[in-house]
Design a protein that fits this description.
Elements (H helix, E strand, L loop, with lengths): L9 H5 L3 H7 L2 H10 L4 H5 L3 H19 L4 H12 L6 E6 L12 E5 L2 H9 L7 H8 L4 E2 H6 L4 H11 L5 E7 L7 E7 L6 H26 L8 H11 L4 H8 L3 H15 L4 H10 L6
Length: about 290
């Protein structure tokens, strides 16, 4: 394949430009390429250099406007303007408190949901059963609503997604975000017929992260709660578990009951707002509460 060919994959055409090489050093382009690197061979073969450069130009223009937004309404307007052409009519940027709280009240940063759906979602207590919320807590990368719906066996979870369709939200993408203060966060975009082309998905991913950063800058400080620190005993237990010890082995080492260890681990997950012990270990390490 000739370098610079119109049908060349992104690696040929994209790197040929000095301007593009400078852009590659930016965090935004890094995120875009990180997303592209997860695509499978067939998807990747459809991504050509000319398409990629056009997409990157649009991303830079859109994110610069989002970054300069002076209000939540402006974030919504700019984000919608960038994604509506791909079928995404709604957006939501929110922190994710524990599901047993039953509500997103006080945690939403940007509310671009249809008003009727938002009111119904809150009134019905759907947050407790929303499968996308549960998955966002442990997911590393973006995921599609359709993939979540396909594997549902819980009737309450299926009801949440089925009722969303009644309000025009047939499919969507969730982008998990590791928030700076405690609770994880998520950006969700959805619509009736959405474009899932590889470059579009990665564009949405990049825009979502900028929308979250802009929203946190504008309103995040008013939502932040003091971050709960682990106790000395909790750090000690998690440190042993991170080293590969089971709850029973930790109980023998520390001279406490296995049930006590299990209780501590449950409290640790709640404090760190994590879905499982592995996620708790990663989060505790990120906060520098344990060493690996």
């Amino acid at each position: 394949m000739q370098r610079g060919s119109q049908n060349a994959p992104f690696s040929a055409t994209y790197y040929s430009s000095q301007t593009s090489c400078r852009r590659l050093r930016s965090g935004l382009t890094y995120l875009f390429f990180l997303c592209l690197s997860t695509l499978k061979g067939r998807e990747m073969s459809a991504v050509h250099g000319s398409v990629l450069q056009h997409q990157l130009t649009q991303i830079f223009e859109a994110t610069s406007l989002i970054d300069r937004a002076s209000s939540v309404a402006e974030i919504i307007r700019q984000l919608r303007k960038s994604i509506e052409r791909h079928g995404y009519a709604a957006c939501l940027v929110t922190e994710l408190p524990r599901q047993d709280t039953g509500s997103l009240d006080g945690h939403i940063l940007v509310n671009g949901w249809p008003r009727e759906w938002y009111d119904h979602y809150m009134a019905a207590g759907h947050y407790r059963h929303d499968p996308c919320v549960a998955l966002c807590r442990g997911a590393i990368g973006p995921f599609l609503w359709r993939d979540v719906h396909h594997g549902l066996t819980n009737s309450n979870a299926r009801k949440v997604m089925d009722e969303a369709k009644e309000f025009g939200l047939w499919d969507g993408i969730c982008i998990p975000i590791q928030a700076s203060f405690g609770d994880p966060a998520c950006v969700t975009v959805a619509g009736r017929e959405i474009d899932l082309a590889p470059t579009v998905r990665c564009t949405v991913h990049a825009l979502a992260r900028h929308a979250y950063s802009a929203a946190e800058r504008l309103v995040g400080s008013s939502l932040r709660r003091p971050r709960q620190k682990l106790s000395q005993r909790e750090r000690e237990i998690l440190q042993w578990v991170a080293g590969g010890k089971t709850a029973w082995e930790v109980s023998r080492i520390l001279g406490i009951s296995e049930n006590t260890v299990t209780t501590h681990l449950r409290n640790i997950k709640q404090k760190l707002s994590t879905a499982n012990v592995v996620h708790a270990i990663v989060e505790a390490y990120r906060r520098r509460e344990i060493e690996l």
